[in-house]
From TrEMBL:
One of its GO terms (biological process) is response to amino acid. Pfam families: AsnC_trans_reg. It comes from the Bacteria. It comes from Yoonia maritima. GO terms for molecular function: sequence-specific DNA binding. GO terms for cellular component: cytosol. Residues 27-100 form the Transcription regulator AsnC/Lrp ligand binding domain. This is Lrp/AsnC family transcriptional regulator.
Length: 109
């Protein structure tokens, strides 16, 4: 499966709480900019922020959803300030995960 490109990598799964990142925030972003330059800058910015563990371009009312791992709300505020100082968005909000019911990297086969 590796030779066929089905397996694209191997990882170690880390307990986020044991490494100081127990809080998950789902960050909802809307933007008025949809040009290639803005999108490239946005992607570069997200890739440079280690707190971003998932980033998704969406259909519907939202443009992007980020999954962010941080230590606590002040750490999220620091992340928020760094993100918004580097890239322009029209609206950003976050919801904090109270309980992880299911979180997996498995792909259903």
């Amino acid at each position: 499966m590796e030779q066929a490109g089905v397996i694209i990598g191997r990882v170690a799964l880390i307990d986020p709480a044991k490494v100081g990142a127990p809080l998950t925030a789902m960050v909802l972003i809307r933007t008025n900019a949809h040009d290639a330059k803005w999108m490239a800058e946005f992607q570069t910015t997200l890739r440079s922020l280690p707190e971003v563990v998932g980033a998704y371009r969406m259909t519907g009312d939202l443009d992007y959803v980020l999954r962010v791992r941080v230590a606590d709300v002040p750490a999220y505020d620091n992340f928020y300030k760094r993100l918004t100082s580097r890239i322009s968005v029209s609206d950003i909000s976050a919801s904090f995960v109270m309980e992880e019911i299911k979180d997996t990297t498995a792909v259903p086969l």
